[in-house]
């Protein structure tokens, strides 16, 4: 995918038929704490999870999972993955915007997420979208890496 094609993407919910594509994207993006087939299947079927995919030419180049809890005004970005070839083209920003739109529609007034402290591109993305770090979770990830907790008020 090149920068001139970045506007030619389609963002839509991900169905079970794309679970292999989701697994491949997770494998290419994350060194640990990846979802497995069982977990992804559960998320795709859960009414409390909103799973979005970004497609370019029929290929999955980005995904996001947002979790909602009953009687909670907070939506949680559980996962955001963008294929290496699609990074820097606005895919992540578009996914965050769609997630915020969905959260507002569900009555949420806040979004939160955890991000590795050494994931500088993701941190820059979230900060550019109005998220602020509010907490540190020591040893949060499977490999012992620390995480920032980011929050954003949805207006």
Overall mean pLDDT: 91
What form results from the Cα inertia axes? globular
Largest sheet: 7 strands, mixed
Low-confidence stretches: none
- Tally the beta strands: 7
Helix content: 25-40%
Structural class: alpha+beta
CATH class of the domain at 3-110, named: Alpha Beta
Note the quaternary state here. Answer: single chain
Please compute the radius of gyration using only Cα atoms.
Answer: 15 Å
- What CATH calls the topology of the domain at 3-110 is Aminopeptidase
The secondary-structure element order is: EHHEEEHEHEE
Largest sheet strand order: 1-2-3-4-5-7-6
Number of helices: 4
What does this structure look like?
The chain is α+β, with helices and mostly antiparallel strands. It has a domain at 3-110: Gcn5-related N-acetyltransferase (GNAT) (Aminopeptidase), CATH 3.40.630. The protein is built from four helices and seven strands, in the order βααβββαβαββ. It has helices at 19-29, 37-45, 91-105, 120-128; strands spanning 10-13, 49-56, 59-68, 74-82, 110-116, 132-137, 147-153. A hairpin with a 2-residue loop joins β2 (49-56) and β3.
